[in-house]
Amino acid sequence: MKKLLLLFTLILAVSCSENKFxxxxxxxxxxxxxxxxxxxxxxxxxxxxxxxxxQMWTERKITEVxxxxxxxxxxxxxxxxxxxxxxxxxxxxxxxxxxxxxxxxDNFGNKYFSETPYEDKLKAIEESNK
Length: 130
Description:
Elements: H1 2-18, E1 22-28, E2 34-39, H2 45-53, E3 63-68, H3 87-94, E4 99-105, E5 111-114, H4 117-128
Parallel strand pairs: 2-3
Antiparallel strand pairs: 1-2, 3-4, 4-5
């Protein structure tokens, strides 16, 4: 009976931890650049960083992984990132207000994190308009 209880507890713990992340958008270009968008309402920043670090990545390609506490595109809206025509378009559509963490895995596998990606995007746009 104790083994059964232990097994049940382990299964419950694993299933609860896996449910912290819901992929709501995904884009992969023909040359394997990727953009992932996740909702993680209860995950800590450390858990999000670990999750982001485990995402698919191809050598000499870039992967962008963005996390939100709730769906930033609205409850019934999906596909804007997934149906993008290019990696750049998918990334621009994925970075919207409310993003709590961005992870970029660069073409050499290095990981860069930002907790203010939307604000960074606005700043870059502002600076390019000067």
